Amino acid sequence: xxxxxxxxxxxxxxxxxxxxxxxxxxxxxxxxxxxxxxxxxxxxxxxxxxxxxxxxxxxxxxxxxxxxxxxxxxxxxxxxxxxxxxxxxxxxxxxxxxxxxxxxxxxxxxxxxxxxxxxxxxxxxxxxxxxxxxxxxxxxxxxxxxxxxxxxxxxxxxxxxxxxxxxxxxxxxxxxxxxxxxxxxxxxxxxxxxxxxxxxxxxxxxxxxxxxxxxxxxxxxxxxxxxxxxxxxxxxxxxxxxxxxxxxxxxxxxxxxxxxxxxxxxxxxxxxxxxxxxxxxxxxxxxxxxxxxxxxxxxxxxxxxxxxxxxxxxxxxxxxxxxxxxxxxxxxxxxxxxxxxxxxxxxxxxxxxxxxxxxxxxxxxxxxxxxxxxxxxxxxxxxxxxxxxxxxxxxxxxxxxxxxxxxxx
Length: 409
Hints:
- By secondary structure, the protein is an all-alpha fold.
- 77% of the residues lie in helices and 0% in strands.
- Residues 401-409 have low confidence and may be disordered.
């Protein structure tokens, strides 16, 4: 990983380091957000589901707007604006004292936060040639997860010594640091010939790329059940298994540590296989992990389930962003990333709302995990279809029917 960074363009190096800083804020807050709503604000489960779904729904147009702006005005300005505004909205959580105030802040936080990823992914595609993109995106994920390792551990200390509210102040400061890094150190990478003006109609036209649309739909289903990590699982672990807030944060840290340890190794082993098979394997393993939560009885059996879920995530994420980058024309990388983010976010939002509703109505709460595991397993039939309709050079990295882009500095 360090050797890859030394040889990489400067823009990529800055993204990797700032991702580590930014995701310390994410890891600091996210493991405790549902528990903050449940224990501090004393919201009912359906209201928690509404807040989480509102957070996700607000991010849906933002992924499109972020991608459009990245292609139209540049990657850097979108990255810097998103991080700066996230620092502000993160601080506002500290002051909320009602469901209505929380919903407003969550919607605003989501909207500004989801601008970031289409621009970041497009920037990586700008400066990294196609054969190296799986390792590049995997390196970025490792950086994110190093931040997520430290975040929950620091968060657990803050929660134990002070309160969950103070997490938002620390998170705001960390995001401000990431914003400053991107402002000072990064340079614009948008291609000068990025093409004609982007409109919403042209963004929606990417849906005519059928392999891309199918892949976006399949990843939406993946996030439909994977979103339970952030919504149902902390509530279930605390209420049904007796796992306290600090211990649940450690589960996040363990998952992130696995990603740091194994993501690049897995990516290096799978990149010569057909990509639809890699996605299928990751999807099924993650689905199995969620189904196994049905049998969890305490912290350590839940930890074993988290290990399986994380293994599936590592395999799935090793190639999915690289596939989207390879499918996208150079002039439309931002909107391809934004559109796929829109569909994925929609899946995650519906999953959060459905999961909290299902947890609320089921007499035996454990059956929620069999439901999500089953949905994941059944949806995996889409990957063989994707393999039949995608370009050969995208499905099989050994086939290179398109010219490799040069690496930019």
